[in-house]
Every structure is written in C-alpha cells, then in structure tokens.
Amino acid sequence: MDNREIELRDGLSRFLSARWRPDAAASDLTHIPGGASRETWRFKAHAGDETRGMIVRIDPATSLIDTDRRTEYRAIEAAFKAGLPAPEALFLEEACEWLGRPFSITAEVAGCQAAADAIPPQHRESIGRQKWSLLGRLATLDPLAMGLGDVMAATSRETCAMQQLDYWRGVIVDDELHPNPIAHAALRWLARRPPPPAQKLSLVHGDYRTGNFLYSPDGEIKAILDWEMAHMGDPLEDLAWSLDPLWCWNGPELAGTLLPHKEAVRFWEAASGLTVDPEAFRWWQVFAAVKGIGIWISSSEDFHSGASKAPILAMAGWLMTDRQQRILADYLSPHSRHRFVEVVK
Amino acid sequence: MIPKASQGIGHLVSRIAQDLMPKAADAYMATDLAYFTALLTMVGQDYDRAADVLISEHDLICTLLRDASVVLDDAGLKERIDAALDLKPASLRVPDLNARADVTVKLLIDVHAAVENAQAKGDAWAAPLNLKIWDYLERFAANRSYDVPF
Fold first, then answer.
1. Which of A251, A286, B96, B133 is most exposed, with the fewest beta carbons within 10 Å of its own?
2. Which of B138, B140, B145, B148 best probes binding to A when mutated, by most A CB atoms within 10 angstroms?
3. CA torsion through residues A162, A164, A167, A172, sign
C-alpha cells in the first residue's frame, strides 16, 4: 500500500465516521485509470455488518476539463432521481480538511465496465439502442423542473447555441499553445450561421459517448458517467457530440462503434419525441468538433505548463487535436470529400 | 547526438510494451504505460518531421500572404504581411521555427477572415484565394496527423 493510498484510506475513514456512521472505515482502495477530470478511486466502506462499494472522485490540481464539482454532483443526483441509470450520489464535500481537496462519493456500480473496445460484438447493437434511447430520455428532462437552476447557467432556446460557442471560443483563444487556423475557421463558420432556436431546453450531459457509461456483461447499460460538463441547452448538442467521428475513428460507419448513424438518430427521436432538423444538426456537428478541439487544446496546455503530468492529458492534447482538426477540415473545406459526414436522416 | 532517434524511440516503445507492461503492478500503472508507448510513438514521428513541416509550411504561407497582399484592401494587414515576409527564425531549431510559425499562422488566420468577408461581399478574387487557403489548411491537418495503431 503506497502513501497516497494510506492517506486516502485514513481521510475517507474519518470522513465516513463523521458523516455516515460513527464506526465507519474505508478499505480496499483501487486507483481507477482513465479519469481525466478527477482522481478516481474505488473502495469499500464498512460500518457494523454493512459493507458498501463506493467511488470517490477527488478534485485534481488541474484536469482535462475545468468543471464545477457541485454541478456534476447535482446533475448525477437529478438523473438518478429521474430514473436514468446513473450512480447514486452519496456525499459532496467541498472542504479540504478530509482529503486535502474537495471530493464527491457515489455508490459503486459493481460488475460493469466502460471500455468501448471491450463491448462484446453480440451486444453492440443492443447497447447502441439503449445508448441513444437513454439520450433521448435525457432530452425530455427539464433542468429547471429538476431543481438545477441554481447550479447551471441560465440560457434560452434562442441563445444557448451562441453561449456555448462563446464559452469554447474563449477556451481555445486562452489555451492554445500555437494558433490553430482550422479551429479559428470553424469558429467563424459557426458565428456566421447561427442555428435555429432549440426545439426545447433540456439537461445536456455534455460528454455523452461510448466509454462514458458502464455496461454489464450481459449488455445492459447500468450507469451514465462523467457528468462534469452537464448544463442546460439544446438536446441536439448531446446528439451531435455522441455521433462525432472521433468516437468511431477506425470505423466511421458505426456511430460510437455501435450503430449506423441513421439508426442512432431514429432511436433518439423515438425516445425524445423530437425531430432532428438537419440544418440545426449540421451546426451542432461542427460545434461538437470545435468543442472537442477546445478540450484537447486545454488539456495540452495543462500538460505543457506542468500543471499536470497525467499522460492522458498529453494523449488528448496531441492525438485528439490531430484527429479533431482533420474532422473539421473534412466538414468545412470546399475541397472535402466529406469522409466523416454521415447521413443522419 | 542520438543516432536515428525516431527508430531508437521505437525500440523504447517496444521495450515498454513487451517487457514492462506485463509486469505492471495494477491497471492504473498498465494504463499509464500504454499511454507512454503511444506518446513516445508520436514524439518519434514529430522528431522526424518537425523541421520539414515548419519550413515547408512557411513557404506555403508566404505564397498565400503575397497573393492576399495584392488584393486585400486593408493597410494594417498589408503592413503585417510585409513584416511577416521578412521574418527570419533565430535558428533552425524547432522552437525558433515554431516561434516564427506562431506569427505567420496567426496572421494567416486574420487574412483568412478578411478573405471570407470579401467573399461574402461578392469580391471576385476572394473565392479562389479562399480555396487556396483551404488547400493549405488541409495540408496543415495532414502534416500533423499521427500514425498510431488505434
């Protein structure tokens, strides 16, 4: 057991004793790989005869995405209460006295995995159907009615697209280590062609993709993860992000490596009750690639500044930027053969 | 100097993948090592091509800037173009080539925006120049693509 593990075990035991049960203790800590925005550990919480699997997500000094832990926690809590598969939110602690940094704890969803490349071939279609049907259900949720108005920026059907564009433009301009002429061309393209108003405002997950949900060995999606970019907005934003070619790089014909794009959209429309407007979708498709570049540029900046030495940040900053700018060039170049443009309707 | 650096990096990648990863203490360590192999592979590819990319792209940008200078009706941009065309890197080391590219690419972004505005106004010269700039941007993306096995 290394020093970090001992430090966390002791801090969690003290915290659980204070907030859960006086005789509580933590054990069996395992560092979960791949969490780019939070330091994530699985552990057992014991009190009396009871043992519960839990997940603690600890704020890092820096991360792939600059996020608000309270928004993330409240979004998970709201999704769970709405009956969507999400981990049960247990504790949000914003003080540093327990683990040195703020953290949140959710119930462990045991026996599942998230790896996109480990999905058994026989379950891909079924998981794809669930994935976009769940996203359609998410699109039916009203964040204000769910009580999320105090943790999410106010917006409107008319302004949500440009608010998101302004935010990600700021990230790109502030964090780019070298000027990126493709990203800037895309930012101008988006600014010149505002999409029609959103059909409705809904809870937007912000990073809904294969790899960000847990599935069981028999192919059932058990929990949607990584809500740190959740916000109020146009449900087409999540749909476009989920269909970005980055998530099916080696087989663009299957969205998220699961389903043909048209089928994914069909399941989403059936569950959401919404109809995809191709013109609006096109805007959100380009936006998704710009947002991706913003995230990858930002992670690259964190890695190069030395704020974090996590290799996943360099991976995102180098490889994902490469791929995302090829996607954008494919979308926008007048010479493009549109290798990445899949027909969705 | 290290002989044949990109191949040497390739050997390091093989050593990590074949000898160290199977001995990783846990999944977290194994994942980090997998990232290291991919990152080192990319470093090797950039080591090999960086100077060539930065010098050849500078020549292409200068051609675009000269074309734009003739047709653009913006004294400030023309002045910046004249200055950029005279830019010499402090040396042929990659950081110095990058510093020059930062100036010229930033200028190209502004020129591209001006060309798009002119095209929207219907200036006949703008569409062909926009096409040439997109030729460059497609090459820019291709020049930075990495060959990794996933």
1. A251
2. B138
3. negative
